[in-house]
Amino acid sequence: MQSPLDRRAFLAGAALLTVLPLASARATPEAMAAAIKEVVGAGTIRDGRVKLDLPPLVENGNTVPLTVSVESPMTPADHVKAIHVFNEKNPQPHVFSARLGPHNGKAVIATRIKLADSQKIIAIVETSSGEFWSASADVIVTLAACIEDVT
Amino acid sequence: MKSARVVLGLASVFAATFALAQGSADKRRSGYQDMGEALQKMQDDDTANPGMLFVQLGEQLWSKPAGAANKACADCHASGSMKSVAARYPAIPKDADKPIDLEGRINLCRTANQRAEPLVLESRELLSLAAYVAFQSRGQPIAPPSDPRLGPFREQGGEIYRRRQGQLNLSCAICHDDNAGKKLAGVTIPQAHPTGYPIYRLEWQSLGSLKRRLRNCLVGIRAEAYAYDAPEYVALEVYLMERAKGMPLEAPGVRP
Amino acid sequence: MTNVLVNAPKTAKPGEIVEIKALILHPMETGFRPGTNGRIIPRNIIEHFVATWNGTEIFRMEMSPAIAANPFVSFFAVATESGTIGLRWTGDEGFLVEEQVAIAVG
User: Fold this and answer.
1) Which residue from A22, B102, B132, B197 has the highest number of Cβ atoms inside 10 Å of its Cβ?
2) Domain A4-141 has CATH 2.40.37.10
3) Rounded Cα gap, residues A122 and C17, in angstroms
4) What ipTM was assigned to the predicted interfaces of this complex?
């Protein structure tokens, strides 16, 4: 499992990469797969139990509402431990990681994310029994017509 | 801030006045109706509408004394007394001969009554105060004053609205009258009624004024945007508010 | 100037699952955007969001630059006892905001 310190180093490193004149620091489906592997390790990822709600068509990628909900009794014996969300075309593959437990009652998180381009979003859920479940969503990102001149 | 019941009440008042204002003969649509469901939900939920952060800030500023007179807005204006104010701006203030918009009115109070420095245009403070005032007119129909002196300014605004400008040689009317409802780059062209100002525009990731949005339009058609304090913006707003007369105010709106 | 909008019920029955919503003003500058001079605007984001119920952690979220500006989070918690729901945001440039709301459970 990644510690916050590792993630900070990763994010700082990713930010640094974009300043250097390298070909591209964009996340790719491969980078997303690598980021997922860091979380899941050798475990198998099952499809199901997780619902990822995103609007299919987004007027502006700056603020995209997202809700992840997981079918889980959220008891001490059987609950969601963590929810990780990844993207495939932003400059870096992480979106967020959340830690939960039976004290949440419901494994439902809503937030707003940035999407640089039309792409696939993947949610990976880790349960208390060590299982991994996932869901994905494809989002088309358009852009409002008359945008700002930064000067 | 507000209890859930009041929030629900406000939302249903908005929906009801919306339905009333938009009778079957009225083809006018707020930009709200051209947004996707996710953004409409974002606007409707006062506990999640990012514009509400600025309304809350405005509420705090409302009670803060300012200027040589050491007066707060609240000292003259009781809470809740700003209802319908935003719906009847721009207007010509007493002893003046030119209309000012809501931000201009707030600055007029600051300089004349509080004896303080005017707030910088498009600053967070000015926008938050405008958001707080406009929020109190939510659900109210847009009601431009019947002052006959507004006539020439309204005409000037209409002339600018219909004037072809910029490298793309487009006028506001070409997109927002003739082609509203059609798609431009995947997004529905709205009719451009100023029903939600100040708006939280996703593109800005912040709250902004109608002036800022009009500047975006001018840049969009590759025209030179007028200076921030140019009278053209107020003239346009006088025209647009008359064009949107009767439509309910939605402040703070959320727009893409 | 920080500004926070927190929404949680003021009362709840024991065992009731309540929704907690939090909205905070923050630019969430990604560190990938070029400014007007062509140089990258430095990253400035909220990294951690932690919620506690009478001091016990009930929710934690690690944010990346992919979280939208003025971050909004909604999550659920089981109402256990009366007391204080604490929310804490930390991030770049020493950003630290704490907010508390009271809740009566009974």
Assistant:
1) B197
2) no
3) 27
4) 0.94
